[in-house]
């Protein structure tokens, strides 16, 4: 009797068929076979990160590690599930292990650096502003940033503010190595130039019989301005100032106007006014507001030891009317092109029979709309 010799199967493959035969002494034959699958090759596995890290190797939002497994022979029995990475940190390692149906296994890993926190950026102003928030010299703004995870990749360079004006925004940005950014802004108010100051009324050297005078003029500056007239606070609006009730002593009076802006720059202007009992006294009346394009009604009262010859009315230095009879009145049509918010200077000048002059002044604000302004004291 005979039987097939043993067969050793060494080649990899699925369902490899092996057959054998047995013959007994009577010559009878029997056959048998088997199918053998051999897989000695480990599976392949790789880790994929979504979203992909940037050029610096960082991601800035929760990331997912997906394991991709394959096996060309017995097939994959187990592939690890995806992992969601939510914790911030550098070089966090995640490893997955794949196994095929033959029991072979392989591992793959990936390191993830996750930074979800933007950097912190600060701005420094030099020199610092005064208590009112203004500077009187050129300002430098520097930016510094820090990031405790991925680190700072870029920060805005220093900026210089040399243009005068208020509310100037200077912005800076910092970006970390994960691509996250943060912004900061500072407001710079700069006024280097002293206020431009001029006195419109009364004229220097003028004479009045009143014991006080209203001083009117113009003041312009990049910053808010306060004006004092012989220690009397003036109202400042629309580039004009008015100080009412500035006291006068008999004889020659020195009147000093001091303008100080928010940055501390100051300007002075001065006039002389003589108070004489023999001079006329005049008081002008005008509305506080008048519409652009409307009519401006003015009036004045003037008295003196001598008869009043006339009262002349001026609006922003332009003669608009002269009246020789009481009540002294004038009407003036305003241009419709006047900008709302503009301020007009109104002066009434009384001249007595001997030619002695005396002035009084006030301010009128232009508002939107049409109509006539009615005089009031």
CATH architecture of one domain: Sandwich
Question: How is the largest sheet built, in terms of strand order?
Answer: 18-25-24-20-21
Q: What's the mean pLDDT score? A: 93
Query: What percent strand?
Result: over 45%
The number of helices is: 0
* Uncertain parts: 371-377
- Find the structural class using helix and strand composition: mainly beta
Report, as a whole number of angstroms, the end-to-end distance.
Answer: 145 Å
Give an overview in words.
With 377 residues, this protein is mainly β. It is built from no helices and 34 strands. The strands form nine sheets. A five-stranded mixed sheet has the order 18-25-24-20-21, with no helix packed on it. A five-stranded mixed sheet has the order 27-33-32-29-30, with no helix packed on it. The protein has a four-stranded mixed sheet with strand order 5-10-9-7, with no helix packed on it. A hairpin with a 4-residue loop joins strand 24 and strand 25 (266-275).
SSE layout:
Layout: E1 2-3, E2 13-23, E3 29-38, E4 44-50, E5 58-59, E6 63-70, E7 76-78, E8 83-85, E9 89-100, E10 105-114, E11 120-126, E12 139-146, E13 152-155, E14 159-161, E15 165-176, E16 181-190, E17 196-201, E18 206-208, E19 212-220, E20 225-229, E21 232-233, E22 235-237, E23 240-247, E24 251-261, E25 266-275, E26 281-285, E27 289-291, E28 295-303, E29 308-315, E30 318-323, E31 328-333, E32 343-352, E33 357-367, E34 372-373
Parallel strand pairs: 5-10, 18-25, 27-33, 28-34
Antiparallel strand pairs: 1-2, 2-3, 4-6, 6-8, 7-9, 9-10, 11-12, 12-14, 13-15, 15-16, 17-19, 19-23, 20-21, 20-24, 22-23, 24-25, 26-28, 28-31, 29-30, 29-32, 32-33
């Amino acid at each position: 009797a005979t039987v097939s010799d043993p067969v050793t199967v060494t080649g990899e493959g699925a369902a490899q068929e092996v057959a054998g035969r047995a013959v007994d002494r009577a010559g009878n034959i029997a056959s048998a076979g088997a199918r053998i699958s051999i897989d000695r090759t480990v599976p392949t596995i790789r880790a994929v990160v979504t979203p992909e890290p940037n050029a610096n190797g960082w991601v800035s939002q929760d990331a997912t590690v997906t394991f991709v497994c394959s096996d060309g022979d017995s097939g994959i029995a187990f592939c690890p599930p995806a992992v969601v990475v939510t914790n911030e940190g550098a070089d966090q390692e995640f490893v997955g292990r794949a196994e095929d149906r033959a029991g072979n296994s392989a591992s793959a890993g990936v390191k993830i650096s996750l930074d979800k926190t933007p950097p912190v950026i600060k701005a420094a102003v030099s020199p610092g502003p005064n208590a009112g928030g203004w500077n009187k010299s050129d300002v430098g703004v520097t930016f510094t940033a820090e990031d405790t995870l991925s680190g700072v990749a870029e920060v805005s360079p220093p900026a210089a503010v040399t243009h005068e004006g208020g509310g100037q925004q200077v912005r800076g940005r910092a970006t970390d190595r994960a691509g996250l950014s943060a912004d900061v802004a500072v407001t710079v108010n700069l006024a280097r130039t002293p206020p431009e100051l001029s006195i419109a009324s009364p004229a220097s050297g003028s004479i009045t019989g009143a014991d006080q005078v209203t001083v009117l003029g113009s003041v312009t500056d990049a910053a808010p301005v306060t004006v004092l007239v012989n220690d009397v606070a003036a109202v400042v609006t629309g580039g004009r100032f008015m100080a009412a009730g500035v006291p006068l002593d008999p004889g020659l009076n020195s009147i000093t106007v001091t303008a100080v802006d928010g940055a501390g720059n100051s300007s002075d202007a001065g006039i002389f006014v003589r108070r004489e009992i023999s001079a006329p006294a005049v008081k002008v009346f005008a509305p506080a507001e008048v519409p652009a394009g409307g009519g401006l009604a003015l009036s004045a009262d003037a008295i003196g030891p001598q008869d009043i010859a006339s009262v002349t009315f001026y609006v922003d230095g332009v003669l608009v009317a002269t009246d020789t009879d009481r009540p002294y009145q004038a009407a003036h049509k305003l241009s419709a092109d006047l900008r709302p918010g503009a301020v007009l200077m109104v002066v009434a000048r009384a001249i007595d029979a001997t030619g002695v002059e005396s002035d009084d002044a006030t301010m009128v604000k232009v508002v939107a709309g049409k109509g006539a302004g009615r005089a009031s004291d």
